[in-house]
Amino acid sequence: MKTFHWFCAATLAMAAPGSAAAQEQSPSTMSPPKVLTIIREYVKPGKAGAMHDKTEAAYVQAMAHAKWPTHYLGVDSVTGKARSLFFTGYESFDAWEKDVAATQKNAMLSAGMERASVADGELLDSVDTGAFIYNAEYSLNQQAEHATPATRYFEISVYHVRHGHRKEWDEGVKMVLEGYKKALPDAHWACYEGMYGAPEGTYLFIVARKSAGEIDRDFAHNKDFMAAMGEEGMKKLEELSAASIESSEANLFALNPRMSYVPAEWIKADDFWKSKTASSVAAAPKKPAEKPAEKTGTGQ
Asked: Is 78 left (phi over 0), alpha (psi -120 to 50) or beta?
C-alpha cells in the first residue's frame, strides 16, 4: 500500500489562512483557498531551531505592526531534509498580485521585510516558491471543518503523475474517494495541483492533524478501507497506481507558532499561538515582495 499511503491516513484537510474570504469565516473553520502559494526554505545545517525562529519572527512582527490583512502558516519538517514551508492562501491569482503590490507600496512593511530578509538569508541554503490550485474533485468533504487553531501537524504527500497516464490516475483517485466515503465517511483531505514552480503532473494531498496520535488511529482503519474496496477493487487500484504514478513521497511537518502569522481569533482560541507568534499578531503573506525571483520549486 506504499503507493497510495496517504489515502489510508487522511483525516482533515488543510487551509492556509490568507484571503479576505477566509478571514470572514469562523476563526475555527477555514475552507481550502483556491490558490495556495508555498515558500520552501532549506535551512543550513545547525541553523534550524531557535536561530531560524528568531529571523522568521521578524517577518511576523513587521506584518503585525503594519496590521496586514493576509495571514500565513509556517511549518518545520519532522521528516525529510531540514526545511520550513510557508503557506498563504488566496481567492485568485489576481488577489495574490494585488497583495504583493500593496506590500511593496507600504514603506514601513517593506523596510521591515527587507531587514528580516537579510538576517534570514544568512541561515538558508536555498529558497523556492510553488503556486498550486485547489482541486475540489480530488478532495473529500471540503465543506467540512478544515485547519483550526488546534491543528499541530500537516502531513503532505506529493505525487508525480506519468505523462500520458492522467486517465489511470483519475480513475484511481476516484476509486479511493468512493472507498473512503463507504469506509470512513468523516475523512477529510485537500488536493492541490501544481500550477507554477512544480513539474507538470504534480499533486499535493494535505492532511491537517491535531496530534500524532491521529496517525496511529488512521492506520488502524486501513482494514476498513480495504474491506470497502474488496479484493478485486484493491487489485485494480494497485494496477492503476503502478501505471499512473511516477513517484510519490509523504512527509510530516509541525506547525511553528513563532513563524506563523495567524488571525487574532486563533491566538484567543488556543494558548499554543499566544506570545510565541511575536507580540500581537493579526495578518499577512509570507514575504512575497522579498524573494519572488529566487523561488521556483515543488513546494514540498
From this structure: alpha
Query: H helices within 159-270, ranges in order?
Result: 166-183, 213-219, 222-244, 264-269
Question: At which residue does the C-alpha cell 501544481 appear?
Answer: 194
Confidence class for position 275, pLDDT limits 50, 70, 90? low
Query: What residue type is 192 in one-letter code?
Result: Y
194 by DSSP, 3-state: which? strand
CA distance 89 to 96: 8
All cell numbers assigned to 148: 483550526
Phi, psi of 153 (to 5 degrees): -135, 150
Prediction pTM value: 0.83
Task: Name the grid cell of 10.
Answer: 487522511
Classify burial at 179, counting beta carbons within 10 Å of its beta carbon; exposed 0-12, middle 13-18, buried 19 or more.
buried
Burial class from Cβ neighbours inside 10 Å (0-12, 13-18, 19+) for residue 243 reads: middle
Question: Is the Cβ–Cβ distance between 14 and 32 less than 8 Å?
Answer: yes
Looking at the predicted structure, is the pLDDT value of residue 143 above 90? no
Of 152-166, 192-206, 278-292, minimum mean pLDDT range: 278-292
How many secondary structure helices (H) and strands (E) does the chain include?
8, 9
Measured between its terminal Cα atoms, the distance across the chain in Å is 22
| Position 12 pLDDT exceeds 70 | no
Radius of gyration of the chain (CA): 19
| 281, 100 contact by CB (below 8 A) | no
Which stretches of the chain are DSSP H helices? Answer: 20-23, 50-65, 93-105, 107-121, 166-183, 213-219, 222-244, 264-269
